[in-house]
Amino acid sequence: MKLFTKYNRIAITTSVIIFMAGSFAFYLTLRYVMIRQLDEVLRTERAEILQYLNEHHELPEMLNTKDQWSVVRRTTQPLERMVFATEKGINPHEHEKEWMRKIQFTLQVHDELYEIAIYKSQEGTDDMIKLIILIAIVMIALILLAGNLINRTLLKKLWKPFYHTIDTIKEYQLTQDKALRLPGTGVEEFTLLNASVSNMTERAQHEYQVLKEFTGNAAHEMQTPLAVIATHADALMQDEQLLHRHAASIASIEQSVGKLAKLNQSLLLLAKIEHGRFELNQEVRWDELLQQKLNEWQELITGQHLKVSLSIVPVATVFHEHLADIVISNLLNNSIRYNIAGGHIAITLNQESFSIANTSSLSSLDTSKLFNRFFRQSGTGPDGNGLGLSIIKQVCGLAHYRIKYRYTDQQHVFTIFFSNSDKPSDF
Question: What is the pLDDT of residues 17-76, one digit of tens each?
């Protein structure tokens, strides 16, 4: 959930609760004031009756209207004090039930005791309260709506530098070999964030360059010692007496030297890619190169009784012949090496993508580490150096291709998209 959405929900919920509580309190206060006004009117009516009684020693003639009427009757039970009450009754003029306010008191006229009740209709008062409450609700709704629109517009504008920073960080890659440039903003917090991120990436860039140079230099310096060891290992294998006594040790040395040489070549290749030593200006016929690689690996494919299905169309891209060879070789090698005897390999090549799917005894691969250097999935053999997929990832990044992995129908599927579309392969 976005920060603005979360803030908006809390702000609107809090505002609605406060306004509802305020409206209820406003209603009670307004009703109390209006009832007190009705009581004042009724009290005035009683005072006028008392004044008339004192002057004329008789009750005045009661004039009834649709909003006010009186009921006078003889009684023997005097009231200790006047009584105010609200009740629902029949309006004698409207002949409808409605809420009314009344004052009730007793008066002594000569020898007779009278109970007088004066009623005042509350319909007008209730209508006025309803109108005021309706206006208040509409005003509250307008205030909330206006506040929400203002907050949405204002916060969106205020947070714009932040999202620009996030987009820039998403696009940034250490391999681009250029510093991350984040502009200053008018907001102190965002300016501080941009400065901190720029400093952090600058340090990371420096450390990455140091590491990259170290890797390249180390791989380069290893070539001569490896060549010397390989040469001496070959010389030892020519000595039959020595080979007879130390065949296992010499074979182990030769195998280790071979793995080191392969690892060294992979590291040198990565260093060259990162240093931009390859110019992507050659026309590569992927269909022809793929067919060539299949012919080269045919002996291994036949040896494992693998069934290969092809769905290939002629595809040519501006790329690098050697890098395309590496990509196809690594993917094809993995599909054979980690396949099962009698398994299946499906290869699809079209204008949008190149895909290889293969059966395997391995379960789904860890996609979070799959393209990391020296990552080896649990269950894979000791062969390989864990750099093959990392090299493919680097090569694809260099050409702005995208590689995706998925595990479906118990098959591992690697797809390289030649463009930025997410269109899946055909198999």
Answer: 888 888 888 888 888 998 999 999 999 999 999 999 999 888 888 888 888 899 999 988
* Residues counted in the chain: 427
> How buried is residue 391: exposed, middle or buried, by Cβ count under 10 Å (0-12/13-18/19+)?
buried
10 Å CB burial of residue 349 (0-12, 13-18, 19+) is buried
H or E, element range at 402: strand 402-408
CA distance 264 to 361: 29
- Coil/strand/helix, residue 159: coil
Q: How many Å apart are CA 420 and CA 313, to the nearest integer? A: 20
Determine the 3-state secondary structure of 201 from DSSP. Answer: helix
Q: What's this model's pTM, rounded to 2 decimal places? A: 0.51
**In the block, residue with structure tokens 């694809």:** 396
* Terminal alpha carbon distance of the chain: 36
DSSP string, 191-202: HHHHHHHHHHHH
Order of strands, edge to edge, in the sheet holding 402-408? 307-312, 344-349, 353-359, 411-417, 402-408
The single residue listed with the structure tokens 């009516």 is: 45
Q: Which residue has the tokens 């009757």?
A: 73
Torsion angle of the four alpha carbons 254, 258, 261, 262, in this order, in degrees rounded to the nearest 10 = -170
Burial call 6-18: b when 16+ CB within 10 Å, e when fewer = eebeeeeeeeeee
DSSP string, 251-318: HHHHHHHHHHHHHHHHHHHHHHHHTT-----EEEEHHHHHHHHHHHTHHHHHHTT-EEEEEE---EEE
Q: How far apart are CA 337 and CA 150, in angstroms?
A: 62
